[in-house]
Amino acid sequence: MATKATKAPEDAYTAAPFVPEHADLAALREAAGECRGCPLHRDATQTVFGAGNTHARVMLVGEQPGDQEDRQGRPFVGPAGKLLDRALAEAGIDPGEAYVTNAVKHFKFTRAEPRKRRIHKAPTLREMTACGPWLAAELALVEPELIVVLGATAGKALFGSSFRVTQVRGTVLEEEIHGRPERIVPTVHPSAVLRAEDREAAYQGLLSDLKVAARALS
User: Fold this and answer.
1) Cα–Cα distance between 33 and 204 in angstroms, integer?
2) Fold of the 16-217 domain
3) Which regions in the chain score pLDDT beneath 50?
């Protein structure tokens, strides 16, 4: 069972007290629902934990849940997730065989006015670091052969604030992540494709990077 902690001190945000030891993914997911390791849980509808094949060869790591993910409680179920599934399939990676998660498990947002649409707000490095123990636990259980990092924010959560996705996208990196040697292919977040002026060119760039990941798995 996770340690019963009610809140994290303002100067020590961390999910660590809430992460149960020797737990399977189902137990981790249940425990994450009670996480109070940083303030993001206060406004989010629910924790959005990772989902997919426990024995997946590839783990996809995004930034944080979006509006639809926050409402439904599953990662990558909105428009960006649908685009990602399409690109994965086209690249030769079965979306149903992947494990998908986010660096941050709660939706961070702002509103111009009450009852107006919730607008995504990027998590801080402090918030991403606080949520790191959940991702570390997922990596330890799934043990993927390859991690696909989706976007700059997810990359900063894994590599630190100096990470620049434009400098390393579409390459196979070998780094130690949460104490484990990992192979990583960084690319843009699918939501960036949806926002792009030239959406087709942006999609082809994402697809090209995912094909690098597919070859790394072959």
Assistant:
1) 36
2) Uracil-DNA Glycosylase, subunit E (3.40.470)
3) 1-10
